[in-house]
Amino acid sequence: MGLFDKLASWLGLKKEVNVLCLGLDNSGKTTIINQLKPSNAQTQDIVPTIGFNIEKFKTSSLSFTVFDMSGQGRYRNLWEHYYKEGQAIIFVIDSADKLRMVVAKEELDTLLNHPDVKHRRIPILFFANKMDVRDSLSSVKVSQMLCLENIKDKPWHICATNALKGEGLQEGVDWLQGTRDLQDGLCLCYIFII
Amino acid sequence: MYFILSGSPIEIAFHFYPWLEAHSDPVAGLNTLSSCMDLADLSGDGENCLVVADLGSSSSGSLGSGMKLKVFRGTSLVSESSLLDLPSGLVAFFMDLNEPRVPALAVASGPCVYVYKNLRPYFKFTLPGLEVDPLEQEVWQQVRLGQIDTVALKDLLEGIRTKSELPLSQRSLRFLSLEPENMEEFVMMHQGQPIRRQTVITCMGTLKKSTADEDGVSCLVIGTESSEVYVLDPEAFIILAKMCVPAPPVVMDVSGQFDVEFRITVACRDGAVYILRRDYDKPKYCVELSSHCVGLVRVGKTVVVGCSDQTLQGFTQKGKRLWSVPLPAPITSMAPMRLSSRGFSGVLVALASCELRLYQDQWVLNTQRTPEPVTALTFGRYGREDGTVVMATQGGAMLVHILRRTASLQKPEGGGPPGAQSVRLNVPKKSQLFVDQTLREREQGPLMHRAFHRDLLRTRLRTAQAYSRALEASTGPSSEQGPVKLHAAVQGLGPNFRLTLYVVNAAALRPITGLSLCMLYDPALYTVAPPLLRLPLLAPGLTYALQTRVTCTGPALCDVIKVCVLQEGRSAPLLTAHINMPLPEAL
């Protein structure tokens, strides 16, 4: 943690970060966000998201505002309108759905080639979800199928998760907090605040 | 150029390849046809499965081994059960209103429809037997009573076969094909059972009962070898309607609702497409095809028929042909492509040349290569993706292609009739004169035609006469009398010109002597120096260039200077050239 962060945490200020949560339908985006919320704010039944939801949760140093976008085919064209605001992206993949891995790759390629994302060093966190399902692909296999090694100009990280139990989620959020790019982008804000 | 290509590969790919190759299993072992393939949500969780009635492997001895009902979910085979007979059709349909909404499967094979619920056998419907010749029945009765032996039976059945209008039953036909030593045994085995004549199902479809909902209760529509089309009630499995067509149906497409109005489009073995409607037991419309039908698909209000002469033809619902497009290879399989979320409907056509083409009306929107010829294909929701095409290839592979979300399904630019065709011509209004003229033309057509021909012939005659006169007078640039050719060039802007005359002796061997060139001109306009040129001996094949000066003295006018080739001792010129002088610019 840098000096400003310490200062900020003494002051009780938390940095606001806008995060986009993307991925195909039925990949577990809403479930993941639900798990990240404090236990008293969690809901029991998750239904397919229509349009998008805005959720907020806090970690030790950051205050996240998550745009939980709907992954259904007819709502996917909404994603690109929020790329500008996003300071980080969480991309959720259903690692048990081998058939649609190519669709996930297609959507990821579209995202990475979008003018609002292409030239920014925006951190991307991949959740290879549904690790508990039998025959699901490992996170290494998922990153191979999505050709993640080709992403050279953005920091990225992939975690195997099970959103139903919340396994692996914290690892991903910790990585997101620690990325330099997110920090650097925010330091300027603190200078103004202080 | 390099930059463009390397900078935007994604955009280029989007435009040209609408399909994502999601899955390919070369060893899936599928041997099936489009009619034996369907996509349905068998588990009721919103994830569609692929149901295939596999025809089995024809390589392992007799046809009819390893016939299976296979269910695929995602990339894997989840269920497999044996079929009793060779399947001729498979459909998923809702037979009741029970929750959860899980469709039943109907597999047609032989004379029966086997209905499966939750992948378990539920009901077997057998088509009613056909009428048996009473004489045939009588003969078999006598056999049972021991009144006639097998030799007499054979003769009697042969007689019935040739005379009777009704065909013989399966048993009699089988009996006649046996060797004499096996006949006795066959008769002993079968004489106790009553004689029956059964037909066979050739194709099957579904028809919504009363609502157009996606999950509305559907009736089964069955086409049989005996040239009949049946509509079955989904709950009681009784025959609701029976229609006759002139030939056994091969492919069918059904639209509408049974209780309201429906259309059954059937392509039959006589090379015609018949359109059946509610309350008619005979076809309402008939389309005679140029060749046999290999696939039939309805897209909106157009019926698209693939023919064996490598054409794809579109018809209205009343059987009027709208268009026909030639294909580069024979059709192996066809399927409709309806994408309600994008308001798109087209036809997928698989060709023997390993291509999968997407047609919207007569326009090809896309051509995709496949590793092998595709024998069966179906389009719809598979897994959780709406725009998916599932294919089975000749070698038994299973291919799944998913339509890109960003794929453009636009008709190609420049497709269809050229733009000029739609521009309205500025046709003037019909005047009284025009009407009078038209009437006159109609009444006196032959007379006018004759008058025209007379004038035409006269013109030709005049032309020929003038030409022959010119030749006789040698006033043309080529001559009949001597093989001398002349052409001229005028150089200069004026008033001084240089006239260069090129003379060629076109004779093969003989040189010509004693020729001279003479200029004839208007002395008020030009002076020519010298006006007469003597030609040297003209060796054959050589071009002689002679020059003379022409000065324009009069007013600035264009005139003709005649150049005559003269021979000593002849009064008429050998040939004459007319030179059009240019306008002198400097005057």
Task: Characterise this structure.
Chain B: It holds the Pfam family GAE_BBS1. Chain B: Residues 484-585 form the Bardet-Biedl syndrome 1 protein GAE domain. Chain B: GO terms for molecular function: patched binding; smoothened binding. Chain B: Residues 19-277 form the Bardet-Biedl syndrome 1 N-terminal domain. Chain B: InterPro entries: BBS1, BBS1_N, GAE_BBS1, Quinoprotein_ADH-like_sf, WD40/YVTN_repeat-like_dom_sf. Chain A: It is a peripheral membrane protein. The complex is a heterodimer of chains A (194) and B (587). Chain A has one domain (3-193): P-loop containing nucleotide triphosphate hydrolases (Rossmann fold, 3-Layer(aba) Sandwich). Chain A has a six-stranded mixed β-sheet, sandwiched between helices. Chain A has 194 residues and is α/β, with parallel strands linked by helices. Chain A has helices at residues 3-11, 29-36, 101-112, 115-118, 139-145, 169-178, 180-193; strands spanning 15-23, 52-58, 62-69, 88-94, 124-129, 156-160. In chain A, 40% of the residues are buried. Chain B is of the alpha+beta class and 587 residues long. Among the domains of chain B are: 134-190, no CATH class; 484-580, Sandwich (Immunoglobulin-like). Chain B has eight helices and 36 strands. Chain B has a four-stranded antiparallel β-sheet with strand order 1-28-27-26, with no helix packed on it. In chain B, strands 2-3-4-5 form a four-stranded antiparallel β-sheet, with no helix packed on it. In chain B, a hairpin with a 4-residue loop joins strand 29 (484-491) and strand 30. Chain B is elongated, with a radius of gyration of 43 Å. The two termini of chain B are 57 Å apart. Classes of the chains: A alpha/beta (194), B alpha+beta (587). The A-B interface holds A 24-26, 73-74, 76-77, 97-103, 106-107, 109-110, 113, 135 and B 10-11, 20-23, 74-76, 341, 382-386, 400, 402, 404-406.
